[in-house]
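Entry for zinc ion complex. Fields follow.
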Amino acid sequence: MMSKRLQTYLTGLAMTLDQRSLPDLASELREIIPNQQPTKQSSGKKYRLIKNSIECRGCSDIIESKHVWDYVTCKCGAVAVDGGLDYCKRSGYPENYIELSTYEEIG
Ligand SMILES: [Zn+2]
């Protein structure tokens, strides 16, 4: 099982690769990050993203993206979320936020 810290780091790395126009590498990386997909599979069970949210470590602002075009920045501007429930997109360095996304089991 991948640690939360490693997951958060890899998610940030995937975002960075995206921003550097390396989508192939980014999507390859996303395949090994279990918690950042709209749906995921773990131990034969399937999960669906129900909340796309992070907390900024700088300003303690908790932000949530509610739909695919909902780009929300924290008060201090260090981090942002996007993608709603279609895609867990993050802006900013992974060490600057705490991952708060939630999943529910769908079978
Ligand atoms: Zn902030």
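NOTE: Residues 56, 58-59, 61, 74-76, 78-79 surround zinc ion (CB under 6 Å).
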